[in-house]
Amino acid sequence: MSHDPRAVLTRPAPPPDLTVGYGEHPDQLADLRRPVGTAPSRPLVIVVHGGFWRAEYDRRHTDPLADALAALGYPVAQLEYRRTGQPGGGWPGTLTDVRDGVAALPRLAAAALPGRVAPTPPILVGHSAGGHLALHAAAHAPDRVAGVLALAPVADLAEAYRLDLDSGAVAALLGGGPAEVPERYRAADPRAVVPLPTRTVVIHGTLDQQVPVALSRQYVAAAQAAGGDMRLVELPDCEHFGLIDPESRAWPKVTATLRSLHEDH
């Protein structure tokens, strides 16, 4: 195992089996991975990558995670979307892309991987900013999502703005702060939309320096108080990137939690 937690971001992994588009823009697409083995079909797992919504981070850094999930027998789609710093990225394009992708990908994946995708709503696995986008997609169309596994999500955009996470990342996404564009925060901030109707598990490392674990603690507590089906799993000695690293000590907990979301649905 590498001593550099960020090593997973550039670690080589097998290429996807094929790529499908859910829109006309070059970034409105997803890479599909065929599940290994001959087990019965399972729900599609849609991986929503992080990177604070910025253009310099794309789905490639989730290749090791996606390949590992396919090796466990899951059909996987790595969702790409327009990001801040790109034409059409930010508000509202980043959010509408993810919602559109989540809506279209089960059908596209079932057609591309015949017999391997169960005819049920997908499970969303989102990391960091991708965790925010997964929560947003589930809040917007809960009937299209079977469950959410949010890994160190930016689950409170207003607080993330106040903390200035990643030097203005939230302001770049939404075009300002809560006082300037309050309606955008009401629409996009998971903390403003509780309880989430979709069964959700949040996993967060207590050593996370990119997204403080306090954001998840406060979000999950608010969701539970409002009657939501949500729980928080805190991992001591885990930082931000171990949650997407199949070689990390956190990985068995991630896969066990995904399995519970799939099997209990």
Give a concise summary.
One of its GO terms (molecular function) is hydrolase activity. The protein has 265 residues and is an alpha/beta fold. The chain contains eight helices and eight strands; from the N terminus they run E-E-E-H-E-H-E-H-E-H-H-H-E-H-E-H.
Could you characterize what this model shows?
33% of the residues lie in helices and 15% in strands. It is an alpha/beta fold and 265 residues long. Helix 2 (93-112) crosses helix 3 (129-140). The chain has helices at 63-71, 93-112, 129-140, 157-163, 169-174, 182-188, 213-225, 251-264; strands at 18-21, 29-33, 45-48, 76-79, 123-127, 147-151, 200-205, 230-235. It has eight helices and eight strands; from the N terminus they run βββαβαβαβαααβαβα. The longest helix is centred in the middle third of the chain and has 20 residues, at 93-112. An eight-stranded mixed beta sheet has the order 1-2-4-3-5-6-7-8, sandwiched between helices.
